[in-house]
Design brief:
Low-confidence stretches: none
Helix content: 40-55%
Bound molecules: S-adenosylmethionine
Strand order of the largest sheet: 3-2-1-4-5-7-6
Number of strands: 7
Number of domains: 1
Largest sheet: 7 strands, mixed
Strand content: 15-25%
Distance between the termini: 45 Å
Structural class: alpha/beta
CATH superfamily: Vaccinia Virus protein VP39
Shape: globular
CATH topology: Rossmann fold
């Protein structure tokens, strides 16, 4: 990681509660996953001030990939834009401003290797239904706050873990991260 990105990541960790950012461990995990799996096309739902996006974009720089990130709180996304610019990562990202569900269903046509869900917890189930057709086979959905907001995300967890196209695991990272791998062939459940 270059010194400017590291500087901003460390700076944003001082205000992570205010901006509801993922933990350092979660950011680091997503960054490693992108690099080790050679992931290229990423959709993020919930930009906030760009903390998780910086972890994602820094990895995408090495895989020649691209991040599309959605946020309805303009002020927050403006901060993210400034940080991406400062870190020299603007060319890796497309910012979309507005209601995530509307943007995903009306504006986005491309397919993704990874979708990171980290917005309104009650909408996770809706986001899942909207992103499922956009996720490539062999792709992965990651969703944060699976342990910290267990009740609110339960409909999503139930839907994805009973879906025969997904193999899932909840990772014991801070707040709980769900990983759902979209299989090449449907699972036979007994
Ligand atoms: C938990 S924060 C995202 C943190 C960010 N992923 C990070 O770790 O740096 C969730 C963000 O999603 C935004 N949000 C919530 N529901 C949304 C929706 N339906 N559409 C777009 N943005 C949404 C909120 O404004 C908030 O900034």
């Amino acid at each position: 990681m270059d010194s400017k990105t590291l500087e901003i990541i460390e700076k944003l960790e001082k205000t992570s509660e205010e901006f509801w950012n993922v933990s350092h461990q979660t950011g680091n995990f997503i960054n490693m996953l992108i690099k080790l799996a050679g992931i290229k096309d990423v959709l993020e739902i919930g930009t906030s001030n760009g903390y998780s996006g910086l972890w994602i974009a820094e990895a995408l720089k090495t895989t020649n990939g691209h991040l599309t990130t959605i946020e309805f709180w303009e002020k927050r996304q403006c901060l993210a834009k400034e940080y991406f610019e400062y870190c020299g990562l603007s060319d890796v990202v497309t910012f979309k401003t507005g209601q995530a569900y509307d943007i995903i269903t009306n504006e986005i046509n491309e397919k993704f290797d990874l979708v990171f869900i980290d917005a309104n917890k009650q909408e996770y189930i809706k986001f899942f239904e909207a992103v499922h057709p956009l996720l490539k086979k062999g792709g992965v959905i990651l969703a944060d706050n699976i342990i910290s907001h267990a009740k609110k995300v339960q409909p999503f967890v139930d839907a994805v873990s009973s879906h025969n196209e997904y193999q899932t695991q909840i990772l014991d990272l801070p707040d709980g991260l769900l990983m759902a791998y979209k299989l090449q062939e449907s699972l036979c459940r007994v």
